[in-house]
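To: structure desk
From: M.T.
Subject: fold request, one chain
Message: Could you run this one when you get a chance? Sequence is below, nothing fancy, just the single chain.
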Amino acid sequence: MNILGISSWFHDSSAALLLDGELVAYAEEERFNREKHTNAYPLHSTDWVLASNKMTLDDMDEVVFYVNPAMYLWTGLKAVLSHLPYSLSLARSNAATMPPMERIWRLSRLKSILCRNHKAKGKFKLVFLDHYRTHQASAFFASEFDDAAILTMDFAVDGTTEVIAHGHGLHIDDKMKHRLPHGFAIIYAAITHVLGFKWYDEYKVMGMAAFGVSRYLEQIRQLYHYDEMTGRLELDLNYFQFQHAGRASLFSDKMANLFGPPRNPNDAITQREYDLAASLQAAVNQYGLAMASLAKKLTGSPNLCLAGGVAQNCLMNQTICESGIFTRVFIQPLAGDVGGSLGGALYQYHAVHGKPRKYVMRHLYLGPDYATTIAGCERQFGLKEHPSDCWQAEVAQAIAGGAVVGYFGGRMEAGPRALGARSILADARRRDMKDILNSRVKHREHFRPFAPSVLAEEVDTVFEPLPACDSLDYMITTMSVRPEWKEKVPAITHHDGTARVQAVRREYAPDFHSIISHYHALTGVPLVINTSFNDNEPIVCTPEDAVRCFQRTKIDLLVLGSRLYYRDENTHALEVKSDKSPASERMNYR
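Reply: Done. Structure tokens follow.
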């Protein structure tokens, strides 16, 4: 059975291809259209997942969409009717990423849109799923567990915010639900905006927390009531505005009075903001633990699966894994809406059709591989290759010498984190490397940490063990740096002594593993800094994207596959007239 999963028209559009139960291809649309968190129809990602497997849309048995339009419409109508007349503003265009009625119209025509965009006759069946089901399935059916508690926490596009369920075999049984307007993601988003950040900036707040103290924790607790016995969550809606205005306005004047006036995004960050971020992190840690404890109580399972936007909070994930509540924890690295396409396909295949489970998520190298186009890219940009007898060893030597390396190789990784296929690599021993990366390439806030990629066999050498966690390969949880290593790798050790770790395994990333192994042999340190290959844009997708990023930043060494290009040997190719390129060049993804 061939199933295509797609997500679109909300945010983070993507496509996933499941062939007889195996995930063979996955990609996010933003990598192709170069628009971060795009809500565009996943034209290029869908074309790629099909073409890379020599298939067409008419070869699909089913296409699964990650939102149920009936539930979305009912949730919207109920929200409007519950808060009249203020809620009439929910129909405005700025209340959502797309005007709600336009979204409904598009969803009603989805099959014809699919056929038109992909030149199909429409032999496939189109299926819509409740959004939370796709989060549940993306975690449980991608895990190794035959039995697990499933905890999903999300903002909710079609009404359901948080669910505790019991996964067993091919079945997912819901045990408890929270629905709009009640959910912790709403609190997190609202305070993110009080702090002067915008949508999708929640990860910045997580990084800020290490620089503050949780002196606003009691004020945050005034925003909601949680009953630990029953799991009932109720927000005090007097502090919120989203139920009236949607995305246009999340919090009321009462919340502003509680924490002080919201920060202007152009103003400097003060200690108040750091302390509020620390308080929010403490609250989400406590709430995540409470929900995990309830999940254990309701299911009795020794295993936990986590997904939904809140499951991207790495510090909360570490707290849950360290708690001992569960023996094993799998955190879906595509925890946000990017995983909806995968979850939809998995749910349909297993829970609906009852097909046996085959796929287990072992790695995220699921996107395009441009190995055959690199030589043409070299000619296009006039790059001069630097010959090397052992390119992995030379890259390791460059990192150890203080070079900033842009590394492009193999199939593109899925999800929000660079995992050694589209990465910038640097020396973790240098205390000044964080400032070097920010000034020369990344241009981001000083409080945001850089993450390490460490040889899987050496993780416990550098970091305090986290034996319950099954997701160390994906930078989806933090770990505590051992005291004796903090001074050895200061560039990846955050202010709170943690780091967001990726364990690199030879069997899934042989070249990346080889680079770190050579670096380890040179320095005695089994890890490097790994940050996404980009500069305030989506992670690079094509070799052309990588070269353009090389041109407009101060990366010292560009690696395309096994080819090395040093900046000082390519000065003639680095004169950039424009950072823009024709769409036809950017979209040359096949």
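Reply (cont.): Residues 371-586 form a domain with the DHBP synthase fold (CATH 3.90.870.20). Let me know if you need anything else for the meeting.
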